[in-house]
Amino acid sequence: APRCELMRRYLLALRDCSDLLDLCPEKVDNYEQKLKNFYTEHIHGDEEIRYCLEGSGYFDVRDKEDRWIRIWIKPGDLIVLPAGIYHRFTLDTSNYIKLMRLFVGEPVWTAFNRPQEEHPARKQYARSLTDKVGVALAAH
Ligand SMILES: CSCCC(=O)C(=O)O
Ligand SMILES: [Fe+2]
Ligand code: NI
To answer: CATH number of the domain at 2-138, please?
Structure first.
């Protein structure tokens, strides 16, 4: 379909600022440990952007009241996690996912496990949650 062709071309053009995670035991070193790390609540200093190519899985993100929101990711879904948002990832019963990671420049996505209230990205994100009215006004 034309939509798939367009996406295929976009992804090709993005290959210099992306990498692939084929999340299966045969292709990933320290598979079990990686899964544990993915499911440990953390933040990053930069946005985490993922595009699902195959399989499926869950991203959990915290809402304003610190409750989990579960997002089911399937092929064709793009997710953008803002810098400083607490999140985690787990596979679903399909037990497989292939994700493209998109970034600008060098991919340095160190995970900082919770609590991380003094991290600059966390402070800025927390501020963005309380400053929504100010942001909306500033945009006008
Ligand atoms: C396997 S999807 C990514 C999980 C995650 O939050 C991360 O790698 O930082
Ligand atoms: Fe992450
Ligand atoms: Ni198609």
So the answer is: 2.60.120.10
